[in-house]
Write a structure and sequence with these properties.
Blueprint: H1 2-31, H2 35-64, H3 70-84, H4 87-113, H5 119-145, H6 147-166, H7 170-175, H8 177-211
Helix pairs in contact: 1-4, 2-3, 2-4, 2-8, 3-6, 4-5, 5-8, 6-8
Amino acid sequence: MLKKVLVCLVLAVSISCFSATCSSAAGYTQSMNINPDIAKWKEGIGKATDQLDIMMSVLDELLNQKTLDLKALFNNFTSKLSMIEKLPKEAKSIANSIEAKKKAYLSKWQKENKGITDPKVLEKAESMRDSVVLGLSKLKDLAEGLQNYYAPFINDLKDIKKTLAEDLNIQKLFSIATSIIKSKDNASILKEKIDEFTNQLSNTQDTLATQL
């Protein structure tokens, strides 16, 4: 009889410990869900892509000159340029947000996993941590790297604006056609870099989906 009681107590303690460990791991994975943040970053960078597409259309209008109202074309170009000039700051804001999230993630990971004693559970938690942190680090680097591609694009657009503001006529538009084409090429390169960032966002989401 005593033996049966002891066995039951051992089982009860084992089950309790196992449940506590599982509960800790489950709490960690739920609380560290960063998908909402990824959605925000994707939305923010998506707006940048939309602005670039709009600007490329405006540059096409300058090249094609399908309207004689050059003043309207120039005003539209200037208006869209003011929107483009905000994009580097938004990319920097996203990079800062990613870095802040990574730090919060690591801090919470330390607090919520310090009580895990099961080596297998801890190994899985560490693997997830490393994968997510690596993904966030890549995202931050890509977001910061966009600055290097925004600068030449925006400088070209400013040069176009300055030239047309000094003398707005058809001949002047013809004379800067090469500059306009160059700006479109830079916009295409910038969009490719934004696509890299978006793809990394998806990769990070996939990592979370397989780890959680």
